[in-house]
Amino acid sequence: MKWALPIGRPFGIRVEIHATFLLILLYIGWRGWGLGGPTTALWAMLLVALLFVCVILHELGHSVMAMRFGVQVRYIVLFPIGGVAAMSEIPEKPIREFLIAVAGPLVNVVIVLLLRPITGSFFPDPGIEVFPYDVPSLIEKLQLANAILVIFNLLPAFPMDGGRILRSLLAIPLSYEWATQIAVWGGQAVAIGFVLLGLRWNPFLVLIGGFVFFGALSENRLVRTRARFRGVRAADLMSGPGAVLGPEQPLSDCMRLLADRRQADFLVLAEGRLAGILERDRWMRAVEVRGADAPVSTAMRRSFVCFRPITEMSTAWKDMLTMDQKLFPVMEGDELMGRVTQEDIVRFLARSRGPEPVFHGWSSASPSRTTQQSRWSIDLG
């Protein structure tokens, strides 16, 4: 992610700190300096640093549990308002989503239990001091912060952990779309509460409320869009190969075909077999650098993603729109069947209408899994 500094790879997961995290660290240090000078500033910054270590452990709780179900965790990023784990998919099986969602808060519960013998209490008295001033007070405030994080993250505010737990439970009797819609309504209601409280007491809650409100809205849109692709396969969207090129043809042929046939992206065949793909951005850049007489082979993409005719588009559409690849060959073994483009996905969405959520009685009507790049949760620190 841009503006993020990698700090390690626990369990093979890339962990990064976003540059904006330094702002909260400096702000807390400034507040501490104002209350008690440089010593208080250092203690305050140490507390924040340790708290965000706990947030990373929280995200690792989500991530390790997800990996047990075969989910790829791409990275964890630490922001000023908390951590975000980017996963390749969100399981639609209620029990799996429940276990992944609850794993993060359980990490904070374990931290509270581990610190309890030192502090002698589950909820230490915060005292009148805002920031710690020695090691015992540092431990007490760290334990209290983790206890608050458990309660806060379990609020039924989708897409926070509590909201995801709520959706997983609702998805047992309801369809996944209805469960999501209800969780979104609940999350947005809580978000509005955050905003109202923030306007009265703490502007930071306004930021959290806005993040939760629009995060819920965005994920609801993703779920409903995915439902529109349910049952749609690559064969349903693909078109013919179109005009194809050979590796030795000049790039000027791309310009001619664009003018004559309005085709901008091409499959490249060598001896009747797929050798590469050539998209508009690549060949136009190559024309500028190498000239129009340069062969297609100098600009074509040799490593690319292909689909099979039976590829479920509900598991592929989101990745298609986020990848830099725009043309996707459809192959059956070594045989070229056709192609699907990003434009095909956009046209399908433009002409299709999403189904309304349907109540299915006391059984889950959701498919077992879906692949999409998704920010798993908003975990606040």
Characterize the structure shown.
The two termini are 20 Å apart. Mean pLDDT is 84; it is low at 354-381. Helix 3 (94-119) runs antiparallel to helix 4. It is built from twelve helices and eleven strands. Strand 1 (4-8) and strand 2 (14-18) form a beta hairpin. It has three domains: 1-153, no CATH class; 155-228, no CATH class; 234-351, CBS-domain, CATH 3.10.580.10. The strands form three sheets. Strands 1, 2, 3, 4, 10 and 11 form a six-stranded mixed sheet that branches. It has a three-stranded mixed sheet with strand order 5-6-7. With 381 residues, the protein is an alpha+beta fold.
Number of helices: 12
Succession of helices and strands: EEHHEEHHHHHHEHEEHHEEHEE
- Uncertain residue segments: 354-381
Counting structural domains, the number is: 3
Could you say which structural class the secondary elements and strand pairing correspond to?
alpha+beta
The largest sheet is:
6 strands, mixed
Q: Residue-averaged pLDDT, rounded? A: 84
Strand content: 15-25%
Cα-based radius of gyration, to the nearest Å = 26 Å
State the total count of DSSP E strands: 11
Distance between the termini: 20 Å
Report the principal-axis shape.
Answer: elongated
Tell me the helix content: 40-55%
